[in-house]
Amino acid sequence: MTAMDFALAGCRLCFYLGVVFLFGAGCFVQFLTPPPLDGRLEREIHEGTRTAALLVAAASLAFLPLQAAVIGDSWGQALDPATLAALAFDTSAGHALLLRVLLALGALALALGFPYMLGARLLLAALLLLSLAWTGHAAMEAGARHAVHVANHSLHLLSGAFWIGALPMVLLALRHLEHPTLRREAVTALRRFSLIGHLAVALVVATGLINSVLIIAGRPIELGSLYVRLLAIKVSLVALMIAIAIVNRYVCVPRLRSSPERAVRLLRHGTIAEIGIGITVLTVAAALGILDPAS
Questions:
Q1: Is 134 helix (H, G, I), strand (E, B) or coil?
Q2: Residue 87: inside a domain, yes or no?
Q3: Where is 128: in which H helix or E strand?
Q4: How far apart are CA 78 and CA 87, in angstroms?
Q5: Interhelix angle 46-72/81-90, nearest 10 degrees
Q6: What is the mean pLDDT of residues 40-52?
Q7: Is residue 293 part of a domain?
Q8: Per the domain annotation, does 295 fall within a domain?
Q9: Which of the four pLDDT bands, split at 50, 70 and 90, describes residue 295?
Q10: Out of the domains of life, which is the source (predicted)?
Q11: Within a 13 Å sphere around the CA of 241, how many CA atoms are in the beta-carbon half?
């Protein structure tokens, strides 16, 4: 990987971190948290939401010039009007990048000027995630295979973003278990997340497997290639996240009745570990997104 590749991967990571938080945290508040805790959580993540929206907007603006530099194999191409225009207006990936910029600026405007329009911001975050499906490996397919790949990757992105992005909200909900006036609402939110989380994890695994088959099948792939090594690391990390989630749900949660303080502490530690691993997964995914599977 060249310096330009690392820059593009870093840009993708910044975008991932921001949009995953916007979508996952937004889903947790909007769909899983009952009032009055939903408003309380929304206020508590206000600054985080603004930071995430800024990160998404900055990364979206940087995507096009960085992609031009990588394609042209020169930093100078990043500012070349002809190259930028050709990439932006003559390719489907360029159209998706332009749409991504508009969506990101809209999400930023909502986060800065209308912070409590959660539904609109959540919709934009979902569309931003879907835009990734049109600029990744699926964009290189054609016909029915292209449609299947885009649809599958879209599900993978949405389910993965919900899972990882909602984890910081789990930490906040665990903290509110200590507040007598909000304990019932916090328990409800955590119970709902546990239920929906099972579906999200199942979708992540199933769509991830299908994605891998669609990307690798029919290509001359070397088992020792960088792409395959990174993919193996990603799969291992996701498996570790699932193992921690299983321990949290089926070992720690049942102990909330008999030993609540210890159970909450273990749940908190497990969730923090999941967040750390999740960020690592996003880092690996950012690198995979710019690599040729045959490399």
A1: coil
A2: yes
A3: helix 118-133
A4: 11
A5: 110
A6: 96
A7: no
A8: no
A9: low
A10: Bacteria
A11: 27
Q: Which H or E run includes 211? A: helix 183-216
Side chain identity at residue 46, one-letter code: H
Q: How far apart are CA 22 and CA 19, in angstroms?
A: 5
How many Cβ atoms from other residues are within 10 Å of residue 99's Cβ? Answer: 16
89 domain residue, yes or no: yes
Which tokens is 236 given? 């291992």
> What token pair was written down for 137?
């490996």
Question: For the segment 117-159, what is each residue's pLDDT rounded down to a tens digit?
Answer: 999 999 999 999 999 988 776 666 767 888 899 999 999 999 9
Instruction: Provide the residue range defining the domain that includes 147.
Output: 3-288
Sign of CA dihedral 47, 50, 52, 54: negative
Distances 238 to 160, 234, 282 between C-alpha atoms, Å? 10, 6, 10
Euclidean distance between CA atoms 158 and 23, whole angstroms: 8
Q: Exposed, middle or buried: residue 204 (CB in 10 Å: 0-12, 13-18, 19+)?
A: buried
Query: In total, how many domains does the chain have?
Result: 1
Yes or no: say if 108 and 51 are a contact pair by the CB < 8 Å rule. Answer: no
Amino acid at 9: A
Helix (H, G, I), strand (E, B) or coil at 21: helix
